[in-house]
Amino acid sequence: MHYPLLGGDGRISKAGSSESLALSEAQMPLLDRRRFVVLSFFDFMLVMLLWFICTVSSGMDIGDAFIKEIDIFKETFMKESLFDVVLIVALRMIVLMVCYGALRFTTWVPVAVTTGFSSAYLLIKVIFFFSHKSSVTLPQYLIVLASFIVAWVELWFMPFRVLPRERHAQELAEVTSVTSSRPASITRPVIPFSDDEFRSALEFSSSEEEENLFEILELYYPRGMYNASTSTVAANKGKKGSKASYIKAACTAQERTTRMLSTAVTWRALRPHDPVVRQSDSGAFYVRSTFPVTAKELWEAVWVRNLEWNDQVLDAKEVLKVDERTCLFYSVSAPAMRGYIASRDFLDVRRVDAEPELGEYSGYFMSVDSHLLPPNTNKKIKM
Predict the structure, then answer these.
(1) Is there a contact between 277 and 286 (Cβ–Cβ < 8 Å)?
(2) In terms of C-beta distances under 8 Å and separation of at least 24 residues, what long-range contacts does 55-60 make, across chains too?
(3) Contacts of 233 (CB under 8 A, 6+ apart)
């Protein structure tokens, strides 16, 4: 689905999935899985190093000390040796590497089993080993703590970071494949306009349309605020912006959005995972997120029923319908920063491209100047 996104330059971009951007983000879950495998190997090497330090620093002959440590058949093995902890960590590393590195499991069950088994064994080991020791060195404590902590880090990393991002990348790839397989006839190109195609308001609009505009103004504004009989309206009559100029502004917004979206893969990544946030050098933002609703429901919530839940908007209404896909839209923002930023109003031309059968909705809008609405004299920041 495509949904509107406000860029830093005041333009609206169409937040969708381009193939180049999808490919770059699809590589991120693969890197996460590699990091998980490296973490498992690091766990084993860390515990192995600590065990080696403990054995060498025991004060015994190095050969005798190693034989004593690795003799798993000795009756006092659980009370005197930490080599079994090394074996547990090695077994956990092998299982995780096979499951997530070679077989590429997409479930968190293997890491949950290895973490649970390791934790249970370490608790038993603490009881047998440390309760019979009169003096314990720091590396001996670190062997148990390092193994326990890293095991739980692995349990968090796989189900809460690696697997969700892989599922998100897979959904993105499916959307990209569907979009790229669309017939060329469905795609709406941006139609260029020449200067000759833009006529004045009097040439483009009929007298009936002109009268309807002023009827809209009289109904839209409170009595006395904007009266069609005043000299202001009389002076503006016949000078309002043409529909062609509004259509041109909508096409410009669509063209700029398409151009910006094609380069979004090169923008600086502010947030690499859902919601993905990127920023261009000009200050524009690209934001993409996944919601557990249908494309139509999300579109209606963001574009149609925005006023119902967005407390940052005091009022929002359609002022003029230009054509089936384009309209003039008026909105009023709420005061911000405890009133230091006053309420402001905006007049935008909006264009909608809806394809419900494909589950795609695109929205663009751009600020325009028009005498259809009086200027907001309170556009200032209080000092």
Answers:
(1) yes
(2) 57/137, 57/139
(3) 214, 217, 226, 227
One pLDDT digit (tens) per residue for the chain, 383 residues: 444 443 333 333 343 434 445 445 555 667 889 999 999 999 999 999 999 998 988 878 888 888 988 888 888 888 889 999 999 999 999 999 999 999 999 999 999 999 999 999 999 999 888 887 767 888 899 999 999 999 999 999 999 988 988 887 777 666 555 545 544 434 444 444 444 433 333 334 444 444 444 444 444 444 444 443 333 333 334 345 677 888 888 888 888 888 888 888 788 888 877 788 888 888 888 888 888 888 888 888 888 888 888 888 888 888 888 888 888 888 888 888 777 788 888 888 888 888 888 888 888 888 887 766 655 555 444 33
CB count within 10 Å of CB 40 equals 25
Three-class SS state of 15: strand
N-term to C-term CA, the chain = 42
- Residue 128 CA to residue 335 CA, distance in Å, equals 66
What distances in angstroms separate CA 103 from CA 95, 110, 254, 295, 366, one per listed residue? 10, 12, 45, 34, 50
Q: Is 74 buried (19+), middle (13-18) or exposed (0-12) by CB count in 10 A? A: middle
Partners of residue 6 on adjacent β-strands: 12
CA distances from 66 to 49, 59, 125, 308 (A): 14, 12, 19, 72
The amino acid at residue 219 is L
Handedness of CA 292, 305, 175, 36 (dihedral sign): negative
Dist CA 351 CA 4 (whole Å): 11
pTM of the entire structure?
0.47
Helical residues (DSSP H) of 136-162, grouped into ranges? 138-157
Pairing assessment for the beta strands 313-321 and 326-333 based on DSSP bridges: antiparallel
Which of 335, 284, 333 lies closest to 306, judged by CA?
Answer: 333
DSSP string, 298-314: HHIIIIISHHHH-TTEE
Q: Which residues are bridge partners to 174 per DSSP?
A: none
